[in-house]
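User: I'm putting together a small comparison set for a docking exercise, and I want a reference complex before I start. The sequence is below, and the ligand is magnesium ion. Could you produce the 3D structure with the ligand included, as structure tokens?
Assistant: Of course. I'll restate your input first, then give the structure tokens for the complex.
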Amino acid sequence: MVIRTTPKNEVPKELQGAHIPRHIAIIMDGNGRWARQQGFRRVFGHQSGAESVREITRECARLGVGRLTLYAFSADNWKRPQREIDFLMGLLKKYLVQERGEIMDNHIRFTAVGRLDALPANVMEELRRTKEISAANSGMTLCLALNYGARQELVDALRRIGRDIKSGQVDPERVDETLIGRYLYDPEAPDPDLLIRTGGDVRVSNFLLWQISYTELFVTPVMWPEFKKQHLHEAILDFSRRERRFGAIAESE
Ligand code: IPE
Ligand code: IPE
Ligand code: MG
């Protein structure tokens, strides 16, 4: 993965000197509650949430973030009313078509993780096209988690590892963390440095369980449709002040 270095003048004043995370993952939650609070139907929240996706993606690319993973539809979100699912799939398709220009202008490489085969055929087709045209871009990687569940990702990885053990391609004694990483949906992705959850709930909701072992967590009560670049800056500043010890002790000790 190529990480774009951002010229100093692109970093806003409040972030000068801050450590920009290499990989940010976001649980974009609170669309429905936000809409209901305004007296609208839940789906209006999803529509407004798409504006936040645009702004946050652009800002992350500008700041020199290497990868942005957005949890857009979970494997458990199929439990929602069919009309909400249909709206979300329609919105996703529209987003994939409309944002292609923006993706190309910002040199973004687009990708997706999850059990993508279960998505509607027209969404899969737009995913394929956006991936294909942006494949050679060298800027930030934007990854949408769609029909994604972390346990499902581990199940899928274990099935493939099992098959490769059975066929003799993998020696069971050689199964280690690095090998498991190679069987995840995107083996190239570094672990997230910062995980943001909007909407105030302090839980992980089956997102990237393997990958967030040492990720810094940031939960904000701000609902996703209201999460804008100043909120992103706040999260990055907070991250920047933390000491990541990875089980060791402070350097000053
Ligand atoms: C997140 O917002 C978007 C998706 C899960 C698709 P929600 O729709 O979960 O909104 P709340 O949490 O009900 O407010
Ligand atoms: C997590 O939000 C999934 C996405 C943001 C796509 P949910 O709203 O589905 O999670 P729970 O139900 O609050 O755990
Ligand atoms: Mg929710």
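The helical segments are 31-37, 42-63, 82-98, 100-105, 121-134, 150-166, 177-182, 229-240. The beta strands are 23-27, 67-74, 109-113, 141-148, 194-197, 216-219.
User: Thanks, that's exactly what I needed.
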